Amino acid sequence: xxxxxxxxxxxxxxxxxxxxxxxxxxxxxxxxxxxxxxxxxxxxxxxxxxxxxxxxxxxxxxxxxxxxxxxxxxxxxxxxxxxxxxxxxxxxxxxxxxxxxxxxxxxxxxxxxxxxxxxxxxxxxxxxxxxxxxxxxxxxxxxxxxxxxxxxxxxxxxxxxxxxxxxxxxxxxxxxxxxxxxxxxxxxxxxxxxxxxxxxxxxxxxxxxxxxxxxxxxxxxxxxxxxxxxxxxxxxxxxxxxxxxxxxxxxxxxxxxxxxxxxxxxxxxxxxxxxxxxxxxxxxxxxxxxxxxxxxxxxxxxxxxxxxxxxxxxxxxxxxxxxxxxxxxxxxxxxxxxxxxxxxxxxxxxxxxxxxxxxxxxxxxxxxxxxxxxxxxxxxxxxxxxxxxxxxxxxxxxxxxxxxxxxxxxxxxxxxxxxxxxxxxxxxxxxxxxxxxxxxxxxxxxxxxxxxxxxxxxxxxxxxxxxxxxxxxxxxxxxxxxxxxxxxxxxxxxxxxxxxxxxxxxxxxxxxxxxxxxxxxxxxxxxxxxxxxxxxxxxxxxxxxxxxxxxxxxxxxxxxxxxxxxxxxxxxxxxxxxxxxxxxxxxxxxxxxxxxxxxxxxxxxxxxxxxxxxxxxxxxxxxxxxxxxxxxxxxxxxx
Length: 639
Description:
Blueprint: E1 3-9, H1 16-21, E2 29-34, H2 41-47, E3 51-54, H3 61-71, E4 76-81, E5 84-86, H4 88-103, E6 108-117, E7 122-134, E8 139-142, E9 148-151, E10 158-160, E11 166-169, H5 174-179, H6 182-196, H7 201-213, H8 217-230, H9 238-252, H10 257-270, H11 275-287, H12 291-305, H13 315-332, H14 336-349, H15 354-367, H16 370-380, H17 386-399, H18 402-411, H19 422-430, H20 434-448, H21 451-464, H22 467-472, H23 479-485, H24 494-506, H25 510-514, H26 517-522, H27 526-535, H28 539-553, H29 559-576, H30 579-592, H31 597-609, H32 613-624, H33 631-638
Parallel strand pairs: 1-2, 1-4, 2-3, 6-10, 6-11
Antiparallel strand pairs: 4-7, 5-11, 6-7, 8-9
Helix pairs in contact: 6-7, 7-8, 7-9, 8-9, 9-10, 10-11, 11-12, 12-13, 13-14, 14-15, 15-17, 17-18, 17-19, 19-20, 20-21, 21-24, 24-27, 27-28, 28-29, 29-30, 29-31, 30-31, 31-32, 32-33
Keywords: TPR repeat
Protein name: Glycosyltransferase 2-like domain-containing protein
Domain Glycosyltransferase 2-like: 4-129
């Protein structure tokens, strides 16, 4: 069997070696069609014994590709771009796949292209593509731009090798796309075709894509809608990706959530197995505080993300982030086991997902001994690896787990490697070594001049009760911090005060914080303090400060803002076990803002917990007047 490898080039000397290395072992011949390189592209090609042909560029990618095909002598053709290469596994499988395709009389081999962002070192998405096909006169490329291989006069017989053939595309990053000025060039070529074929869905789709690159979302939306209107595209996966573009445009243009949701539901109706749409829906629900609806939508997407779609999708590569979000949503409902399970699944996919790690550790820090937590961590990380140790030290210090932080600090063979780092200073603060922590934050401030380091230096100095040290660093303090130390009624900067409050709450230094209660009120820091207590899961204090804030600002707050605060107070009461008072506050919040989904969801959580089904039915019926599309409410009513 003879395999011809074809590549179109122009100034690709840096990309071409990887491309040709990936095909040299099985390709009987390499055909390079160059469209005017001025760098070392031709020299690179000749090192690989490629046959080089020159082709005058005529604004038509298909013409260039078909010219390359016309020079090929092989039975099969593999066509790569210069910034693409076959994965290592694909190189091993290619000949056996071609033999199977021969036996089954197939004409095309379907693989996938993985778009890699070289700048951010991550896979952006994957999509099915045909780059391997028989050398047959009836098989040629069509389309001046976004060209695609087609068979003339009959159905395409395709061998599905999506799980075996992966082509890595390295030219995907926004920076590279913009540097090549692709979008402007593409639009010129596309509109030439559009003048002759103004009702083609594929052209409308490609025009929309080019406008997306230019961030011209109005025009991108217009042409995405045209692609749906004509419904005559044959390219696999085009309509799924077109819906993604359409939804993204609507989000960028700040269309009403109701309209975006309608579009997402239409997309799901047309393509129910495409995972990205469920992630869009989950994001919309989450932004609307529809927690259980969001969880369900995200789960639907996760279930489908493991299946390789026939359309370009980023779902698999976003799965670890989505699992983190699912975990956070479960925690917000106090459903801790489900939350932890989601974080563990996320970390199994990517153990460097720092948000999942810290969220999981917060739960364990409140409910498990550090020794028990260590056994879970050891199943996910190599606690002998210095990189894992540093990651775990950072995370355990951030969540304030003194026992685990001490353990991982003890595993460091050379603690001086973190000597100037923020975590080193925070570690000493966590361990109650306030004088050392103050000195470390002082050194950091002198290097960074960052407000947070200066405030932490002051907090550590106050907690150390070392008056001498405080005097020695007074020259480094702003007048605002000096006023704060002296609890002056004037001259305190609100931003520095906010950092000060956060630092004390994070360290659970309630007594010291409450000494500043009058200043917190005077400097309008009540809400910030309440929110910080809430995030720190110090619910009794959070309720007190929320209540102070409501009383003080009752004449100025909007109904929506007051409702939001009442809901948070109700969640605190729920978590403290005072369900009756929580229901009372939720009803008050409902009266203020009946369009807020959370007031119904939290009432239902409590009522279902206490098995008050009659009241639950009443609440769900009231909620359905405002949210008739809610899957969760429908489930409650049904059952």
